[in-house]
Amino acid sequence: MIAFKEIEEEIYKKFINEIKPLSFLQNFEWGEVEKRLNKKVYRFGVFLNENIIGVLQLIGNFAKRGNFLSIAHGPVLKESYKEYFEEVVKNLIIFIKRENKFKNFIFLRANFLFEYDENTLNNLLRIGFKISPKLFVTDNFWIKNLEKDVNTLLDEASLHHKKLILEAENKPFLEIEKTQDFNKIGVFLELYKKLAHLKNFIPYPDELIKEEFKEFVSKNSAYLYLGKVENKYVSGAIIIFANNCAFYHHGASEPIKEPINYKLHWKVVIDAKEMGCKFYNFWGITEKGPEHPWYGLTLFKKGFGGELVKFLPTLDYPLSWKYYLTYFYEKLKYRSRLRG
Fold it and tell me: Is-cis flag, bond preceding 75, omega within 30?
């Protein structure tokens, strides 16, 4: 029998620390970021016959188009219990429908932390899930394994990337600044907004990026990397260090011929390895062609070497007929724009 029970912070954190999922969006700290953005955070243990087999951070979002619940890269299940994933999801829907505290939410939006499987996807669609009109969080990761010597890590890069990494390393006027200074976040946000305008994507709100940086820096788990060319800031990346991974969660740069971004991310690779990280998670890529706004960024990420891990797509579960008003609104609004 699958059950969901609210659990204490210590138990939740201990479970995440033991499993070390490939995302940090189920980490306790991410929930604290969501709280400061006026969202409701529910944290549950997933139990099978009274034994904890997983944890889940469920977020209550309040929006003009309709209040909804969301799951970002969850639930986190023990590897030996992944076979129970569909049963966990089915029981979660029953649990949500039954609990009065969820009655004002009109749908559930989920990016499940479960590798893509067509049979699983079809089974979820059969029980009432819909393919969402809007990507919620990334449904894939590009991941580089760091458990190798530095020369091997460099040799895994494409010839193009390797050449530019080495070239950048020999240019002292290309500088990388690594900081936890909150005052420098404004530099990043300026670059980020310019890039959003140039690439026509919907940027994350300033407040989210600020609160994310503040929360993870307070746990010594985040750094802002800034690239400078002749003392001018031209690129930046917010890197989260958690779960034995370095996560490239936000990035921005100006169009420039100098290979500053190659130097920046190579430094992240080296730093992450020295910190004992097992992976560098470059976050999401596009699997579409050159017409896609993320195509250039995808080639950049893949050029460092690594592999694709693909999850189920963003799925919605309607809890009210009002969901369909949201569905058609979002289908129209987001058909030509993406979240960065």
Answer: yes
CA distance 253 to 336: 22
User: Quick check: 330 pLDDT over 90?
Assistant: no
> Which is more confidently placed, 330 or 39?
39
Instruction: Determine the Cα–Cα distance for residues 22 and 26; give it in Å rounded to an integer.
Output: 10
Name the band, by pLDDT with cuts 50, 70 and 90, for residue 340. Answer: low
C-alpha distance from residue 143 to each of 65, 306, 308, 309 (Å): 35, 5, 6, 7
Comparing 267 with 65, which gets the higher pLDDT? Answer: 267
Listed residue (19, 86, 99, 93) closest to 52, CA to CA: 19
Report the predicted TM-score, pTM, of the whole model to 2 decimal places.
0.94
CB neighbours of residue 131 within 10 Å: 12
Report the candidate in 194, 306, 311, 316 with the shortest Cα–Cα distance to residue 255. 194
What SS3 class is residue 321?
Answer: coil
Q: CA-to-CA distance for 179 and 196, rounded, in angstroms? A: 23
| pLDDT per residue as tens digits for the range 277-309 | 999 999 999 988 888 878 999 999 999 999 999
**DSSP state letters, 150-186:** HHHHHHTS-HHHHHHHHHHHT-TTEEEEEE--GGGHH
Q: What is the pLDDT of residue 112?
A: 98
Taking the CB of residue 5, how many other CB atoms lie within 10 A of it?
Answer: 11
Question: What are all long-range contacts of 126-130, with beta carbons under 8 Å and residues at least 24 apart?
Answer: 127/89, 127/90, 127/93, 128/93, 128/317, 128/318, 129/315, 129/316, 129/317, 130/315, 130/316, 130/317, 130/318, 130/327
C-beta separation of 102 from 139 below 8 A: no
242-273: per-residue pLDDT in tens?
999 999 999 999 998 999 999 999 999 999 99
Of 320, 318, 312, which is closest to residue 75 (Cα–Cα)? 312
